[in-house]
Amino acid sequence: MSDFYFSNIVLIQSTFTVLLLALSIQIQFRMGVFSFAGAAFYGMGSYGVAILVLHYDFGAFSALATIVVICAMVGYLLSLVVQRLNGLYLAMATVAFVMIVTVVAHNGGTLTGGSVGLFGVLTPVEISVPHLLAVCAVVVAAMIVSERGAMGRRIEAVREDPELASAMGINVARYRKMSFVLSGVLGALGGGLNILMMTAIAPENIGFPLIVLALTIIIVGGSRSWIGVLIGALIFTWLPVVLEQVGTYQSIVYGVIVAIAAIFMPGGITGIVTDLYRRRSARSNADAFESEQRLEARAAEEDAAEAAELQAELASSTTPSGGSR
Amino acid sequence: MTTELVRPQPDHSGPDAGDVLTLDDLAVHFGGIKAVDGITLGLARGRISGILGPNGSGKSTLLGAITRLTPLTRGTLRFEGRDYSRVRPEAVARLGIGRTFQTVRLLEDLTVRENVQLGHDLIAGARPWWRRPGKADRETADAAVATALERTGLAGKEALRPGQLSYGLQRRVEIARAIVMSPKLLLLDEPTAGMNRFEREEIGELMADLRAEGLTQLIVEHDVQMMVDVCDHLFAMNSGRLIASGTPSDVVRDPAVREAYLGRQDNDDRDS
After folding, report:
1. How distant is the Cα of A6 from the closest Cα of chain B, in angstroms?
2. Is there a contact between A173 and A91 (Cβ–Cβ < 8 Å)?
3. Which of A249, A257, B128, B240 is least crowded, fewest Cβ atoms below 10 Å from its Cβ?
């Protein structure tokens, strides 16, 4: 076990930082907000922590906390700027935001390290996998709470039918704003933890490729639940390692797997499992109904027979008087 | 042709001081189309009022305007004396106005029970955010949802999803979701569409029960007989304007209403 851990530590770290990245985009999709801002927050988190540690001598935790707060605030401000946009227009606006972050990283001079990026981000407290797992556990717990009970129902209503949600007293605009703030928090956590463990960042590590990676994870794993995102993160972090055996055809096989998943699993892997479960429970509900209806019909038949018997008895007892009339 | 059908606003349609809801010169225009054009009326407390009118007469737009989901062009909305013409749609639900929709709007991924619980969440949402629902809160919520399901004839169907229900049953889920909100005013947009005669009668009985409990209701419905049977007061609309108001028997006998529904009498005579 420990051999496996130490020989694959980078992949294990990547799995969970990529999980945070994908959740930063999925949380917005869950609230019906078609935004890729999470990829920008991931980049801001990486560069922000690197800048605070290298240029301002911040510690690991203070740098991470600072950048999380900054990204949450930027998320809120971004939500105000794009509050009137929806669908593809909103997606394009947030892609532009991701591009702006990349351009700033490229042209930030000594602050961002330009095209070379920043490296040697070392802090007295070494951030490692247990820290990452602790953060992911808290995030997943929050996700579980948000998917259940009243909060889960409200989010479902906001995504599926905003007008209905309003009629139910739900402030849809507030949920949209909240999705940007949460995306900022999750993206910054993912990016910040990534730089603290990898110690180096360059412009090619952020930007549009992160959108493609997160979208692939969400589509294949399933967009409705954190479990789908975790499954997607596991698959797409470890798949390239498995595909090393096919050598130069790696990209083609990767692409085919993604295409097949998108075509034949519109709800992702979790969507298939959910569908199967629902079909099964629907069948058992239908069976329960049928047997209940059969019982009711039998009871009605018995009642009718009893009534007919009673009527016949009454008729026979009243015949003499009827006959005398 | 249509302008000939529009008559001046009847004097007796005006609101009274004790009305739960009052509309004053309410108008909703979509560009050049006057979907609602200068409606003034009041809904008496604890009564069932109905709005009759042919397709496209502006009935559902009026409900949209009352719930603020449709922006007003002009006019004033008052609920229990308070002007709410400028509040956001979600605040209208919190005032105590519940509604159903013309086309069924249920969340397909939620069960019947969860769809109804969504209505009760409004009441639960009034709790401060730091106070998690306790056992007593959950029991109260469960009891309220169970009662709403029982009253709408949905007991036993809690675990099903809307896609597994007939259209009539889906309508009942909408009604259950609206009444579980404990509204002070219930707006029902074609509540019996897709239901058979017996089901319509059941819904009519439910409305009568709710009236007996003091709930004010406003119904938009095509079924004239049901409106006559259930409503205490009827309003008739055509081309976005109010063309009649009064007791159900008076309104259905009103020549302007008959004309709006059946066309001009002289045309009918010629045809026959």
Report:
1. 43
2. no
3. B128
pLDDT at A321 (0 to 100): 47
Structure tokens at B170: 């889906």
pLDDT band at A323 (very low <50, low <70, confident <90, very high): very low
Range of the domain at A126: 2-242
pTM (two decimals): 0.85
Contact call for residues A219 and A262 (beta carbons, < 8 A): yes
Distance from C-alpha of B9 to C-alpha of A321, rounded to nearest angstrom = 67
Q: Which residues of B104-120 are buried (b: 16+ CB within 10 A; e: fewer)?
A: bbbbebbbbbbbbbbbb
What is the phi/psi pair of residue A157, to 5°?
-65, -40
Note whether B87 contacts A: Cβ–Cβ < 8 A: no
What chain B residue is nearest to A151 in terms of C-alpha separation?
B121
Number of domains in chain A: 1
Taking residue B254's Cβ as centre, other Cβ atoms within 10 Å add up to 20
Span B1-96+186-194+216-272: which CATH code?
Answer: 3.40.50.300
Nearest C-alpha neighbor of B48 from the set B217, B203, B179: B217
Alpha carbon distance B9, B237 (integer Å): 11
Alpha-carbon span B269 to B139, nearest angstrom: 63
Task: Measure CB to CB from residue B122 to each of A156, A164, A169 and give the nearest one.
Answer: A169
**Cα–Cα distance for residue pair A243/B262, rounded to 1 Å:** 73
CB within 8 Å: B121 and A168: yes
Measure in Å the smallest separation between the Cα of A28 and chain B Cα atoms.
Answer: 18
Q: Which residue has the tokens 């690991």?
A: A60
Q: Inspect the interface and report whether the beta carbons of A282 and B164 lie closer than 8 Å.
A: yes
Q: Which sign, positive or negative, has the C-alpha torsion B114, B120, B122, B124?
A: negative
Task: Output the CA–CA distances (angstroms, integers) from residue B255 to B220, B250, B265, in the order listed.
Answer: 20, 10, 9
Side chain identity at residue A200, one-letter code = A
Secondary structure (3-state) at B16: coil
Looking at the complex, report in whole angstroms how far the Cα of residue A159 sits from the nearest Cα belonging to chain B: 10
Q: How far is CA A53 from the centre of its chain?
A: 30
Taking each helix axis as running N to C, give the angle between helix A226-242 and helix A268-324, from 0 to 180 degrees, rounded to the nearest 10: 140
The model's pLDDT over A61-86, given as tens digits with 9 standing for 90+, comes to 999 999 999 999 999 999 999 999 99
Partners of B110 on chain A (C-beta within 8 Å) are: 153, 156
- All residues of chain B having their beta carbon less than 8 Å from the beta carbon of residue A167 are 67, 69, 89, 92-93, 99, 101
**Neighboring chain B residues of A170 at a CB cutoff of 8 Å:** 90
